[in-house]
Amino acid sequence: MTLALVSGFLTPLLRRHPLLWAALLVPLLGACAELPQNVQRPVSTALETVAGTPLATLVDERRAAANARFASGFLLLAGPQAAYGSRLALVEAAQKTLDLQYYAIHADASAERLLLGVVAAARRGVRVRVLLDDFHSAGKDAQVMRLAFEPNIEMRMFNPVAGARGSAFWRMVSALSDFSRVQQRMHNKLFIADNAMGIAGGRNLGDAYFGHDASGNFVDLDVLAVGPIVQDLSRSFDSYWNNERAYPVQSLITQKELDAQRASLAAAEEEQGARTEPSPAPPAASAPAATASAPMAPDADAAQRSRVWDRKPLDLTTARFVWAPAVVLVDKPAKIPAESSATTEPLAPQPDTPSPRAAVAAQGAPAAHLEDNEDTVVDGLLQLMGQARRDLLIVSPYFVPGREITAAFAQARARGVRVRVLTNSLASNDAPIAHAGYARHRKELLGMGVDLYEMHSEATGVRRAFSATGSGSATGSSRAMLHSKLVIMDHRLLAVGSMNLDMRSQKQNTEIALLIRSTDLARRAGSSIEQALRDAAWHVELQAGGGLVWRAPQGSNLQDATSEPGASVPLQLLLLLLGPLAPDHLL
């Protein structure tokens, strides 16, 4: 078992499961870092008058041309080209406001181009608000916080992690005294322009989410929403933006500190380059250099930047929207406790969003038997599953079913509902420890008749299956990792969002989803998933003797397997060693 393998296992584990490591280190280390006190947060809200902007006018024109019965429209964004192009289009078309809410924004070539566009929008008068979960803003990714020092851009960090930002590991060590709060994260993802068009789904901002990472890329799904439903997304954004858990960047770090950190990163890169003596890359013709205040992508070479800048904005005038009724399911910001020692300025009351259970009930689902404190996005989806009569098709990259999720599946199977779940295989999972939580429930789920599929990690067939156009372009033959999150019920209801079907999404992190009632959209999404189940996934079956067999994807020329397919023996042994240490509710 090599050090590289252990590092490759532990790094994503630390990134996704900070509490596990914090708990192990508590007896050894102390911590005293605290968040700033008496923080001022000027209240602001989404654009009130939507009509009159070019995007709002376009929505009205497209709705009228379609003679639509419903006011809101939706477009699935499956491939990286559509996902990236749609965001570029919103940045370029925005005239009044841009609101971005993300769990992670990485300082790489893909995010750099998008954020340089955001800076350009701010300089032409667009009011920009960026709300970012604070867990990933260490090391080079801390440079994204430079946005806060641009005119006309406000940036806040949700649920900050106190301490230095030089490395993620030591930053976590400095926050051990408050690790119960720190391990709960804002997992929501929104990209909203002029309160008229918005993107919701599973993607963060970075190369791996748009097909540009050389080592591995996520297979993901977003929805471009237009019309009145976007105002519901904006109300959710406002509730987080104006919350006491959101700290202005200026209260956490200065521009001088970011400059010093950038200089340190540049020196380290130069030293590394001197050791490896790389051949010089050709200049990128179309990518501008990062400005002094714009985010940097220090690891991006000229060729990578050139590929990113070759991407074109989506033509919104030709987008074929599906017009349908929908509701927003969103967790309350208070799902994450506020930092106990920090005092804050009082905030004005904000318009509230319906609870997930109330939103699902509005779609006709009967009330579920849940405790009063169980009213999250995942709980709303479980309530929805109680209405299923024929088919449940679920995609969850991190799938760790707790008691309530397992019970919902058992009840659905008792009613004769077909239940299929697509998740990552151990080989395709970027956080292998999460696979341990899933693997220990596998036989129980198979025994009750749930069909389990695990994604094959080789990229070509996977991306073809999930791309709306059949051509999910990505760098080289890099590893594919499932990241889409969706539920399709009875071929008529589609939920797409940031949530996994696991206990972390249910109990710890905040999430958001769009629940759309449309047989057309459900059919389109379902068709892609059906193809993925056939051509890009291992079908797990329970043998008579109690063992498992993985049936190879059709047409793959692979052999069936009797152990974790594609995963190395050392990785499987490491999982057996560390898996029992990780309880389900922390995965």
Report on this model:
- This protein has 19 helices and 20 strands.
- The protein has helices at 3-16, 18-25, 54-65, 80-93, 109-123, 168-174, 179-182, 229-241, 255-276, 302-309, 356-361, 377-385, 403-414, 432-439, 442-447, 459-466, 503-508, 519-535, 569-578, and strands at residues 73-77, 97-102, 127-133, 153-158, 190-193, 197-201, 216-219, 222-226, 246-248, 322-323, 326-330, 391-395, 418-424, 451-455, 479-482, 486-489, 493-497, 512-517, 537-542, 548-551.
- Strands 9-4-3-2-5-6-8-1-10 form a nine-stranded mixed beta sheet, sandwiched between helices.
How much of the polypeptide forms β-strand, as a percent range?
15-25%
Derived structural class: alpha+beta
Task: Give, in spatial order, the strands making up the sheet with the most strands.
Answer: 9-4-3-2-5-6-8-1-10
Helical content (DSSP H or I, runs of 4+): 25-40%
Number of helices: 19
Radius of gyration, CA atoms, in whole angstroms = 23 Å
Q: State the end-to-end distance.
A: 24 Å
Extract low-pLDDT stretches. Answer: 1-11, 26-31, 277-294, 341-350, 367-372, 468-472
Report the average pLDDT across residues: 85
Number of distinct beta strands: 20
| Inertia-based shape | globular
* Sheet with the most strands, sense and barrel status: 9 strands, mixed
